[in-house]
Design a protein that fits this description.
This protein is mainly alpha-helical and 311 residues long. It has two domains: 2-54 and 244-299; 60-186, no CATH class. Helix content is 59%, strand content 0%. The protein contains 14 helices and no strands. Helix 3 (74-83) packs antiparallel against helix 4, helix 7 packs antiparallel against helix 8 and helix 12 crosses helix 14 (289-299).
Length: 311
């Protein structure tokens, strides 16, 4: 593994040297330590994305789909359903995985207990589609017990400001209703994906952008939409590819990209100009938009000293 990592590091280093010599100076990488840390973060990001892609190509046990099992995993469950021809359930599970996130302490427990209705039933896509307000009613009846039973159920780091509290305007039940309304415009996930393909003329990047712009779902801003669509792609649910890192309306990634390109976070470059430069850099390095976005976001947190981030 160390040999493979070193080889990848050297390939990226050479590509970066070529980019700086022939395309644009990256002032944020003038210091050797900054450059080394940046490449290390790109390597980490590539490996995280590759791990998810490998999930999409590996045999998956059906027990991964069962929220009553300790083996439940919404992403692996999505792969199982995709392989078995159920794109609707696969897409729904990717949405739930994105909305709830994986918490370092409680893992997928929150997604597991909501999807499995605390062992009472399953909130499958078919059930939710036919009764969009069902989860809201269920959470209203079960929220108190979920909060007081001593079991840790937490949102993931990217979703830490979300809530299952039915009394709040950002409650999970309302998010689900909003998501169902989005998909229902087309009749199904598959019909929606087909519409994106047609509008894009079969271009994977254009189809990604079409879905990104079309996705009007409560609490799904830039990061959540990007995470949801890239995960659908990584797991093989839909054949799309991010056309940009979508850093225009971001905080950390935009700050990091400005630092990378100009050497400081208060560059007078517009967000669109910075985004375009990052797209060119990613293409030159031969990495995807999710990898470069993730790497820049993590690099800007500690530009000169490497820190490992789990996602």
């Amino acid at each position: 593994m160390r040999v493979a990592r070193q080889k990848l590091f050297e390939q990226l280093d050479a590509a970066l040297t070529d980019y700086i010599a022939n395309e644009r100076e990256l002032q944020g990488l003038d210091a050797t330590e900054n450059r080394v840390v940046f490449i290390d973060q790109v390597v980490d990001s590539i490996r995280r994305v590759e791990f998810a892609r490998k999930l999409g190509s590996r045999p998956i046990s059906k027990s991964r789909t069962d929220p009553k099992s300790d083996l439940f995993d919404p992403l692996r469950a999505a792969v199982w359903h995709r392989v078995n021809g159920n794109i609707e359930e696969a897409s729904w599970l990717v949405f739930l995985a994105t909305h709830f996130g994986k918490n370092l302490e409680s893992n997928w427990r929150l997604a597991q207990d909501v999807y499995g209705a605390l062992g009472q039933d399953l909130w499958t896509w078919d059930r939710v589609y036919s009764d969009p307000e069902g989860i809201s009613r269920w959470l209203k009846s079960n929220f108190h017990s979920m909060r007081t039973d001593g079991i840790a159920r937490k949102f993931g780091n990217h979703r830490k400001y979300e809530s299952i509290d039915p009394s709040k305007s950002i409650a999970t039940g309302l998010v689900v209703e909003s998501y169902v309304a989005w998909v229902a415009q087309y009749g199904s996930h598959q019909a929606m994906f087909d519409a994106a393909y047609r509008a894009a003329g079969g271009d994977k990047r254009v189809a990604f952008n079409w879905l990104y712009k079309d996705m009007n779902v409560l609490r799904f801003g830039r990061m959540a939409k990007f995470d949801y669509l890239t995960m659908l792609a990584k797991l093989g649910v839909i054949h799309i590819e991010a056309d940009s890192p979508y850093i225009v309306n971001s905080t950390g990634p935009l700050r990091g990209a400005k630092l990378l390109v100009s050497g400081h976070t208060h560059s007078d470059m517009t967000p669109h100009e910075v985004d375009a430069e990052v797209v060119k850099l990613a293409d030159s390095l031969g990495v995807g938009m999710q990898e470069i976005e993730d790497a820049i976001c993590n690099w800007q947190k500690s530009p000169s000293r490497y820190k490992h981030f789990r996602g």
